């Protein structure tokens, strides 16, 4: 039998066996709910990471301890739970978001990690905070070339206001030791960009001059949260490369650390 589970406005589909069904005018059933039906103690913030560097940074900066099934949690700054995806890309981000919501029902989801910077104002190790994402994978191939059909996601107004309050209170760009944080738009797709004159970069800059960085997961998170609520979300990305021919992994640990530091400072605005 198909069932629908609503967790804080998010709908999930599941199955129930016949042993959970009672038939007759006075029949009843006391089936024990599964994890999606009865979340553990609700958490304030659910953090999604993709790489080992990102996970280590989030665990250290937010002072999280291992739980089980790849989850980590702590209460140093607020009730935070984090999980690393099983891979890269939009599908992996969507799966991680689903797991967090089904088990912990956090008030807001944060995608934390690294990205490629495409705006001249950004330096390696700077951080981008985004509540708006354009997915660039949808396209049409024509004799004249590729025609992009981007899709646009925007976080709930409550999160947008929280991010605005953060930058209003601390200035923009917000200065941290050794780097700055800026607000802007993230471009997202399933391909790695390592060419400074790539066609997709021209498309993103034309789409919005506030497109600061690119990653592979934000589009999936935006879609998932839109389809399931909409669920509150924000993306926090440290710049590990400039999406050009010099792209390498050298700055990934530092960029991940800086992104986690910005998440820590954002928390009071997100859950206050």
At the fold tier of CATH, the topology name is Rossmann fold
CATH homology superfamily = Nucleoside phosphorylase domain
Low-pLDDT stretches: 1-38
Give the C-alpha Rg. Answer: 20 Å
Strands in their spatial order, largest beta sheet: 7-14-13-8-15
What would the average pLDDT be, to the nearest integer? Answer: 86
Provide the helix percentage: 25-40%
What distance separates the N and C termini?
A: 40 Å
Please identify the top-level CATH class: Alpha Beta
Residue share in β-strands? 25-35%
In N-to-C order, the SSE pattern is: EEEHEEEHEEEEEHEEHEHEH
CATH level-two architecture? 3-Layer(aba) Sandwich
How many discrete domains? 1
For the largest beta-sheet, the strand count, sense and barrel status come to: 5 strands, mixed, barrel
Query: Strand tally, please?
Result: 15
| Overall body shape | globular
Number of helices: 6
- Broad structural category: alpha/beta
Short description:
This protein has 272 residues and is an alpha/beta fold. Helix content is 29%, strand content 32%. It has helices at 52-61, 90-104, 157-170, 199-207, 218-227, 252-271, and strands at 2-7, 10-15, 45-49, 65-66, 71-74, 80-84, 108-117, 127-135, 139-142, 145-148, 151-154, 174-176, 179-188, 211-215, 233-241.
